[in-house]
Amino acid sequence: MNMDIIPSTPWRPGNERAWILVVEDSMVVRLYYRHLLEREGYGVDEAINGIEGLEKAFRTRFSLCIVDVNMPVMDGHRFLQALRHEPMTRVLPALVTTTQAGEGDRRAAMAAGANAYLVKPVPGELLTLQVAALLGRAAR
Amino acid sequence: MPLVRGGVATSPGGVPREQLDSTDAGQRRRAAKALAGGRGNAPLLVSCLGVETDANVRAALFAGLVSIGGEAVAARIAALLRIGDPGLRGGAVKALQQLGDAAEPVVDALLRDVDADLRLLAVEVTRAWPAEVAAVRLLRVIEDDTHVNVCAAAVDVAAEVGTPALLGALARLRLRFAGEPFLAFAAEVARARIRASDRRLP
Amino acid sequence: MTAGADCIAISEFEFQKFRDFFYRRTGISFGDSKRYYVDKRLLERIGKSGMESFERYFARLRHDVGGEIEQLISLFTVNETYFYREEHQFDCLANHILPELTSHLPHGARIRIWSLPCSTGEEPYSIALYLLENWPEIEDYEVELLASDIDTAALAAARTGIYTARALHRLPRDVVQRYFSKLDADRFRLSNTIRQAVNFSQVNASDPHAMQPFAEIDVIFCRNMLIYFDDRSRQGTVDAFYESLCEGGFVCVGHSESMSRISSLFRVRRFPQGVVYQKPGDYR
Predict the structure, then answer these.
(1) Which of B164, C81, C151, C245 falls between 20 and 30 A from B118, CA-CA?
(2) Residue B189 pLDDT > 70
(3) Chains touching A, CB cut-off 8 Å, 3+ pairs
(4) Which of C260, C266, C271 to mutate to test the interface with A (most CBs of A within 10 A)?
(5) C205-215: per-residue pLDDT in tens?
(6) Best of B193, B194, B195, B199 to mutate (most C CBs within 10 Å, chain C)
(7) What is the total count of domains within chain B?
């Protein structure tokens, strides 16, 4: 299909900057994270549920994903499990940010494949520090 | 003439109720579909949802409940929100959205629940409602709710369906939650979008 | 002076509101650079809908009154058909999907591939040609090609198998020579053998009843149809795909399409040529 309006995968991750996939149902959260991350020089792409997240993660090599848990169609746990099942994304750093604050919720997310877990609302500096830490760890 | 199979294969072992317990997810899904529309099947469909972990079987169970419809079904589905599973919650929210105004009473009750998680999910249901119907509820949440994430959810929906009546409450959010830059950011996004339509030519 | 579409301009925040809503509902996203194109088509629709303002139009849009979302999608997309369109998916079929499916099948087993909407036949015939040219194992299995569309005129044309040079522009020259005969300056006829290899049928994909007889399908190609359906029809059609497929069977959709706004029934599978969807379960 020649979608004359739709940009066809306009971004190819280059060596200069890391690309981050934000898999998050809420528009204002996606906007906020984009604002914080772009300010730090990262490239940002978005998905609103786990299925779209997988489609994008499987098509483009991201450096990290930020994942919501409560999303329609496919939730964050299932997304993470599918991510870890696929060789291309098996070790893609995944930061979960969620409204769920319980220890059981944290353990469930880590068991599903998260590398880090933050409770919303996430202070901006904490988000960027955590992202940098995960990317630093991945680069090693 | 395409090569086709005549009719749908009926599973051996007969009645859907027994098949609901099958170890095969495909069979459980077919059984769930067979129960769709039957008014008396709602309790059974809900109790299956309480224990079902397969996403596709869940989808069929929820679809069955939605096909029955009504306020009683909405109430049963809302009860499922209290189980912590995110997939189950997502399915329940979607089902409540599909039930339309039959879900209004139970959603209004959830918006007053002591559990902030439930209030947040209830806010998400209102996204499917006509703007005027949703905005009344959103206003109350944005004015009064004490939990930052519940307010954030309401702001997100308000950015799509909000009316000028919400502008004041959105502005006050920054004061209500002084230490939350995210909420101030979100409220400003919603305000900008609501105000945009206000400047239209007559 | 009455306010018409000419008096309406779309503000920056209205554009954002529309963009986010449209993205949420359809998965289609617009970069800022596409602002002019989007505005133009939006204004066209606002004018046609008789709404005096973006706000009123947006309220209708939210509830997809009169299939408005689908009208917009039609305006935003160009849909043309030709042989070997999105060839990477045929590549995937020959080099990954079929090898995976047949790895446990005995020789002589039947493989059923369904193309819908098949329109004037380019897609199912492309599958036939591509597999003959690129999948040597085709000799070892009984490949059935089914093709369906709602449009009887398109089906008639498909059965006739006469195409213009434009429809053939992506085919390698030797493929054209091998399987087509030239009728005149701009008309080529597909060989009898290929034409007879495809079973055409008229089907309304959003009618569950019409879909029901199709069973034990191994691969479905459904490209650039779902994107034009409303939510309910899409849901119903994808459900019907699920029922029609074998466990472990595959669905390929258009490269700009996604299951993410439709259904979580299928597993997302990654191959080097792209993403396809698989029905869970043990294959045959």
Answers:
(1) B164
(2) yes
(3) B, C
(4) C260
(5) 989 899 999 99
(6) B193
(7) 2
- B149-164 pLDDT, tens digit per residue, is 999 999 999 999 988 9
- Chain-wide mean pLDDT for chain B? 89
Q: Are residues B101 and B135 in the same domain?
A: no
Among residues B76, B110, B144, which one ends one of the domains? B110
pLDDT at A105: 94
**Is C219 a domain residue?**
yes
Domain that holds residue C72: 5-76
| C-alpha to C-alpha distances, C279 to A106, B17, C61, C270, nearest whole angstrom | 30, 24, 33, 14
Q: Is residue C190 part of a domain?
A: yes
Q: Give the tens place of pLDDT for each residue, B131-150.
A: 999 999 999 999 999 999 99
Query: A7 pLDDT exceeds 50?
Result: no
Kindly determine whether residue A7 and residue C77, on different chains, have CB atoms separated by under 8 Å. no
Q: Do B193 and C215 touch (CB under 8 A)?
A: no
Looking at the complex, report in whole angstroms how far the Cα of residue C66 sits from the nearest Cα belonging to chain B: 16
Question: Do A10 and C31 lie within an 8 Å CB cutoff?
Answer: yes
Q: Of B167, B170, B169, B173, which Cα lies nearest the Cα of B199? A: B167
Q: Which of B110, B137, B153 is the last residue of a domain?
A: B110
Q: Which residues of A touch C275 (CB under 8 A)?
A: 54-55, 58-59
Q: Which domains does chain A have, with CATH numbers?
A: 19-139 (3.40.50.2300)
Do C72 and C129 lie in a common domain?
no
Q: Are residues C270 and C161 in the same domain?
A: yes
pLDDT of residue A89: 97
Q: Which of B197, B198, B199, B201 would best serve as a mutation to test chain C binding (most C beta carbons within 10 A)?
A: B197
The pLDDT score that the predictor gives to residue B199 is 58
Tell if the CB–CB gap between C260 and A58 is shorter than 8 Å. no
- Region B1-23 average pLDDT: 56
At A39, the amino acid letter reads: R
**What pLDDT is stored for residue B9 in this prediction?**
36
Which residues of chain B neighbour C55 with C-beta distances below 8 Å? Answer: 197, 200
Residues of chain C with confidence (pLDDT) below 50: 1-5
Which pLDDT value is given to residue A139?
A: 62
Residue type, C80: E
User: B155 is written with which tokens?
Assistant: 């702001």
Asked whether the beta carbons of residue B160 and residue C55 sit closer than 8 angstroms, the reply is no
Q: Show the domain range for B84.
A: 13-110
d(Cα A79, Cα A72) in Å, to the nearest integer? 11
CATH classification at residue C153: 3.40.50.150
**Beta-carbon separation of A26 and B152 below 8 A:** yes
Chain B CB within 8 Å of residue C53 CB? yes
pLDDT of residue C80: 86
The pLDDT score that the predictor gives to residue C232 is 86
Q: What is the pLDDT of residues B23-80, one digit of tens each?
A: 999 899 999 999 988 889 999 999 999 999 999 999 999 999 999 999 999 999 999 9
Looking up residue B64, the CATH number of its domain turns out to be: 1.25.10.10
Query: Taking the C-alpha atoms of B24, B25, B30 and B32 in order, what is their torsion angle to the nearest 10 degrees?
Result: 120
